[in-house]
Structure formats: structure tokens, C-alpha cells
Write a sequence for this structure.
């Protein structure tokens, strides 16, 4: 049984009485075993599996824990445990309540947000500070939702960014219109899932006897308020304040820090025995992290007794010399490639090491940069598919029109709304059988000088300008072609959408849909646009070899998506799997190239932490934008504690491309790998000034 395999500290935590238990589980101390042991204890004490909620930060982690429970209690029992991320659990509950939930990725909602933003003008405001761009304002609003429970957005921005106070009423109006559009079309983003789930919890009892929370140190105020709204009879939280690395996403370390103040019956359990790393690796990690303020006291014990390798610092004169040398070290290593990880703080570092590994013929897979599902070619296929399944999905339409030259998101939004109007609320009705009695399907523009809304809509255009494009008569007669700013490229693009959906409406299987989209004229246009862009050289010319190679890679990705669609027989299930599960899918084989955030919770025999230069790691730019040296130090701690047997730390002194010199990272001094000197003092002063 799971409990019999625990050490005394883990067993004491796993069998703690009902109440508010916080388990401080440092890297490699067996937190997963403790959580599984806790679930076993609950089941042994007649708690029904459906009365247990397990909240994790990845669905993969939840799945692994449920599998371990299944080994002792059977699959039928284990699968009744409600386990998953905050978002997936909320999605399931809201789907039970509403029947259908239209979940959107942030990049899709940014497209809708931009269509609202583009209708505003800030030129009438005299200010030395330029307004925020659409994407930054969207991210700021998302951060606000995750971190602010009281203030309205306008007041919150004014208080934090005084130089933007003159724009705040426009910002707030953009947000208001954006939220109205989301409600109108039934769109939810990840924040909305939690906000609606919190409201659901306030309205009804969910029936959980205990809620278990993994990675508790990374919860933000919104997630914390959701846990509070559940009012669990018992709460079992597992985390480590030294591994809190999601401040950029609103994670609030004070949530784990204030546990004993918040709950009168709080009990703290500390797991001290480290089973992962050797003494020298753990000693280095603890030496550096000890520079951060201690929230809960802890002292780790290493259980491994074999003769260890000391962590190795490697210094190179030039940046790419570092990448080449690491590639050669990996090539000569006796460690299996799948047990090796190269961990980076910045994507620029990953680009360099990936190129040199491939140059040496070393297979590698990358996580933490642009994923398969974030690639433009896959997004485009899924946007086409999404509109087929949900004809009210304006965002999918707007996003597709980014490939139509000269048609911005604001115009695309107006076209979509007009087609819906011509179809009596149905997009496809308006596309295939429009109401011919409607002469002008376009909305009258709002006017509000203060909110940046101006009337710039010209007279209706003449469809005759498109006569040479030889459209089918049914399409040519559509009043949507009267939009005055719809150019020939846009009209042609809309026609190809029309032709494709005539075919897609006949198909019922996800596989068939993916195959038809990939072979369509509109997708050929998208492939051509992307491959030209990726084949463009610095002087603007097109390298045909690069362009051809890019087109082949795009086609290979569409084939992979075709393979992923095979197990599915329902459109909606396939699409939801792509939205909710895409972050847990990893492609490729060989050495792992990981951002520090992507490496969280993983372990490897051999680890290389690269580009440990001041400015890159710690990342001073991010510190200026609200980060901190403490957060960067926690990132360093997470990176080095991924290593089980061998740890290599590296930095370069010079970048010949940018012609810039580097100083060693502050953390190398703190680890006593470099003697402290005047340079170190300067770095500490620099960090202090950034904090101020």
C-alpha cells in the first residue's frame, strides 16, 4: 500500500487529522508519494473517491497520481477522484451546469480584444506617455484578474501606473466592450473559468470532504479565492516557498507564507529527506537560496550515499563557443540522451544551444519556447475547425483574416457581424443564403470623443469592383461585399472560406475535417504566406531553399495534427482536447531543452544550466518590470535541483554578434564558485537599485 512505502515524515503528514495541513516539500523530498499516501489514507478511512478533489498545476501530474492510486485501489476507484488543474476542474463543473463551454486560448481572445482596441483613437489626448498597445493592455487586464479582488480595473491601473491615468477611461471602456462581446458570443478564457467556478462554489456545495492542492506556492489570489469559496472541510496543501517562480502570472508567495495566520488549526509538516540530488548539488542550491528570507525553517538531509560528482563551472570566452562546447560534452557523455537536460532562462539561449546540438547530429526536444500548438500553421487549422463547430466563434474568423492582406481585425469583426446579420444570427446562413432584403448589414459606428470612438465609416462600396474575380453568383450577390474597406485580397480570401465550408459542412469525422482543411486553397495560401516569411533574408530577398524547407515542415505539422485526431469521433471533444491538453504534449526525442518554468517537477541525471551571465540570469529586464532578485534566485534553485547526478553551470564573457561583454551571474558568486570581489559588490548594488 502507498502508506507502507513512506518514510516517517511523509507518513506523519499523509495521516494527519482532518483540518488545515501544509506540507513543506522541498525539491526531491517525495511530495508526490506523500500526496498519493494522503489519498490512500482518506480512502482507507471510508472517504469516497468522488469526495476527494486533487488540484495540480498540470493535467499530467494529476494523471500520474491517479495512476499510482489505481495500482493499489483499482482503476474504477481511482478514476472517481476529481483530479486535474484548477482550469480543467472548473471546465468540467461548468460543462455539467451549462452543457457547453466555449473555451478560448489567450492568443484567440487577444485577437478579439485587438479588434475592439483598433476602433479607438488616442490622438486627441496630449500626453508625453504613449498609450499601451492592445496586447500589453490585454496582458495587464489578465494580471489584474488574477491578482486584484477589490478595485475596479480603471482605479487599479490609475493607482499603479499614474502616467497612464489620462487613458484609463478609454482602457476601461475597451475592457467593458470586450467583456460584452465575450458574453454575447459565449466565449470563456482561463480566468473566466475560475471566476465562474468561484461563483458556482458560492452558490452550491460541491460535496468534497478534502481538497488537496499541489504546488501551493504558485497559487495566485484568484486561485486562492476559489479554494476559499469551496469551503472544504479539510485542506491538504503541498508546496515549497523556495520554488515559487510564477510571480509574472500573479503567483503570490504570501499565500503559502500566511497559512498559519489564516487558519487557526493550521499544522505545518516538513519533509526533510532528499532522494534526488547528491550532497554537492543540494549544498550548492541551499547555499544560494539561503540568501532569500526564510518563511518556514527547514534543513534538508541527503539520503544518497554513493561518491558524488562536484558541480562543474565552465567559463568560455565567447557565447557560441559555450554552446558548441556543451554540445561536444553531451556528445561525449555516457548518460542516455533522454536523461540529459539543458535548462535556460531566456529563449535566446535555447535558440543557440538547439542549433549547435542539431549541427552535431544530437537529437533534442524543446519545451518552454513555441510549442506545436502555438505554431501559426496549427493555429490556422484549428481556427478553421473551430468556426465549423461553433459558427458564432467570431475570434476564429478574425484570426483567420490576419492572412488576408490589408484586412485588419476591426474590419474582419465588422464583416463577421454583417454576415451574421444577413443570416438572421447564423454565420453560415448569412454566408450561403443571405437575406437579400438587407441592403446595408453593417453596424452604425458609435461616437464618443472622450472614449476615443470616432465615425470613420465611409459610404457603402460597389460589388462591381470584384467582378473580375469570377465568384459564384450566390456569393457575388452577398451584401457583405459592399464593405467600403474590403479589398480584392480580402474578398478573394472570404470566397475561399465560402468554398471550404461548403465542403466541410458535409463531414462528420475529425480526421476527414483535418485532411480537407490541409488540402484546401485557403490553407495553401496560409502555407505560402508563412513559408515566404520564414524564407526571407535580412535584405528582404527570399531564399527559395529556406522557403521550400519551411513549407515541408508546415505540411509535416498538419500530418501530425491529422494523427492526433484519429482517436476522436466527435468534433467538440477533439477541439477541447487540443485546447485543454496541448500544454502537456511533448514532441521529439533526445536531449531535453527546457525553460526553467517547463523544467519544474522534472529530474535528470545530467543537467546543464547555461548562460549564467548578469543580465541574462538573473534577468535584469524582467526585474525592472516587476520581478525581483528573490524570484530570480528561486528560479536558479529550481534549475539546479533538477539534477540528480551531474550538474554543469556555464557562462560566456563576450557576444561577438552583439559585441557586448558579460559579467558572471550574481548566483555564481553566492554559490562560492567564483571568489567574491568588487564585481560582485557592484552586482549586489545593481540588484538593490533595481528592487528600489
Amino acid at each position: 500500500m502507498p502508506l507502507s512505502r513512506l518514510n516517517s515524515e511523509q507518513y506523519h503528514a499523509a495521516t494527519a487529522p482532518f483540518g488545515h495541513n501544509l506540507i513543506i516539500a522541498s525539491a526531491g523530498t517525495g511530495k508526490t508519494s506523500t500526496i498519493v499516501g494522503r489519498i490512500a489514507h482518506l480512502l482507507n478511512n471510508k472517504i469516497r473517491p468522488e469526495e476527494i478533489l486533487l488540484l495540480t498545476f498540470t493535467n499530467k501530474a494529476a494523471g500520474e497520481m491517479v495512476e499510482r492510486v489505481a495500482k493499489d485501489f483499482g482503476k474504477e476507484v481511482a478514476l472517481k477522484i476529481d483530479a486535474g488543474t484548477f482550469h480543467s476542474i472548473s471546465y468540467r463543473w461548468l460543462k455539467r451546469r451549462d452543457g457547453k463551454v466555449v473555451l478560448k486560448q489567450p492568443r484567440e481572445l487577444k485577437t478579439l480584444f485587438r479588434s475592439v482596441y483598433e476602433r479607438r483613437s488616442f490622438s486627441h489626448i496630449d500626453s508625453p506617455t504613449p498609450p499601451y498597445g492592445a496586447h500589453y493592455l490585454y496582458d495587464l487586464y489578465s494580471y489584474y484578474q488574477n491578482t486584484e479582488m477589490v478595485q475596479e480595473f480603471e482605479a487599479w491601473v490609475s493607482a499603479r501606473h499614474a502616467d497612464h491615468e489620462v487613458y484609463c477611461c478609454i482602457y476601461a471602456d475597451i475592457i467593458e466592450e470586450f467583456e460584452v462581446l465575450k458574453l454575447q458570443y459565449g466565449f470563456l478564457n482561463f480566468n473566466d473559468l475560475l471566476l465562474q467556478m468561484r461563483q458556482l462554489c458560492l452558490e452550491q456545495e460541491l460535496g468534497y470532504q478534502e481538497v488537496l492542492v499541489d504546488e501551493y506556492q504558485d497559487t495566485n489570489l484568484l486561485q486562492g479565492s476559489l479554494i476559499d469559496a469551496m469551503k472544504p472541510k479539510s485542506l491538504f496543501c503541498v508546496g515549497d516557498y523556495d520554488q515559487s517562480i510564477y510571480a509574472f502570472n500573479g503567483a503570490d508567495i504570501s499565500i503559502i507564507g500566511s497559512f498559519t495566520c489564516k487558519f487557526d488549526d493550521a499544522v505545518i509538516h516538513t519533509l526533510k529527506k532528499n532522494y534526488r540530488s547528491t550532497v554537492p548539488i543540494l549544498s550548492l542550491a541551499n547555499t544560494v537560496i539561503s540568501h532569500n528570507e526564510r518563511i518556514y525553517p527547514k534543513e534538508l538531509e541527503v539520503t544518497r550515499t554513493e561518491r558524488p560528482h562536484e558541480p562543474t563551472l565552465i567559463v568560455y570566452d565567447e557565447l557560441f563557443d559555450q554552446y558548441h562546447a556543451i554540445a561536444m560534452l553531451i556528445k561525449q557523455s555516457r548518460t542516455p540522451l533522454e536523461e540529459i537536460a539543458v535548462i535556460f532562462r531566456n529563449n535566446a539561449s535555447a535558440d543557440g544551444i538547439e542549433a549547435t546540438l542539431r549541427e552535431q547530429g544530437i537529437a533534442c526536444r524543446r519545451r518552454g519556447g513555441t510549442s506545436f500548438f502555438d505554431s501559426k500553421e496549427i493555429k490556422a487549422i484549428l481556427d478553421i475547425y473551430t468556426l465549423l463547430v461553433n459558427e458564432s466563434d467570431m475570434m476564429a474568423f478574425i484570426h483567420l483574416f490576419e492572412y488576408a492582406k490589408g484586412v485588419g481585425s476591426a474590419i474582419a469583426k465588422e464583416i463577421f457581424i454583417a454576415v451574421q446579420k444577413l443570416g438572421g444570427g447564423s454565420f453560415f446562413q448569412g454566408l450561403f443564403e443571405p437575406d437579400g432584403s438587407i441592403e446595408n448589414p453593417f453596424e452604425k459606428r458609435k461616437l464618443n470623443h472622450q472614449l476615443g470612438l470616432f465615425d470613420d465609416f465611409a459610404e457603402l462600396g460597389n460589388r462591381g469592383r470584384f467582378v473580375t474575380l469570377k465568384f459564384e453568383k450566390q456569393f457575388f450577390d452577398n451584401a457583405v461585399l459592399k464593405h467600403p474597406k474590403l479589398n480584392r485580397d480580402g474578398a478573394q480570401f472570404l470566397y475561399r472560406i465560402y468554398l471550404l465550408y461548403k465542403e466541410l459542412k458535409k463531414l462528420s469525422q475529425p480526421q476527414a475535417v483535418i485532411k480537407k482543411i490541409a488540402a484546401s486553397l485557403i490553407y495553401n495560401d496560409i502555407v505560402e504566406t508563412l513559408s515566404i516569411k520564414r524564407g526571407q533574408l535580412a535584405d528582404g530577398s527570399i531564399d527559395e531553399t529556406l522557403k521550400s524547407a519551411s513549407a515541408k515542415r508546415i505540411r509535416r505539422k498538419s500530418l501530425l495534427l491529422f494523427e492526433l485526431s484519429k482517436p476522436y469521433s466527435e468534433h467538440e471533444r477533439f477541439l477541447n482536447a487540443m485546447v485543454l491538453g496541448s500544454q502537456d504534449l511533448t514532441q521529439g526525442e533526445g536531449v531535453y531543452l527546457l525553460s526553467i518554468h517547463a523544467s519544474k517537477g522534472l529530474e535528470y541525471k545530467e543537467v546543464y544550466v547555461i548562460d549564467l551571465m548578469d543580465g541574462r540570469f538573473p534577468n535584469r529586464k524582467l526585474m525592472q518590470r516587476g520581478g525581483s532578485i528573490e524570484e530570480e534566485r528561486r528560479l536558479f534553485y529550481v534549475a539546479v535541483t533538477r539534477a540528480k547526478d551531474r550538474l554543469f553551470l556555464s557562462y560566456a564573457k563576450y557576444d561577438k554578434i552583439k559585441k557586448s561583454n558579460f559579467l558572471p551571474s550574481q548566483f555564481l558568486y553566492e554559490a562560492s564558485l567564483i571568489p567574491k570581489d568588487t564585481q560582485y559588490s557592484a552586482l549586489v548594488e545593481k540588484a538593490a537599485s533595481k528592487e528600489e
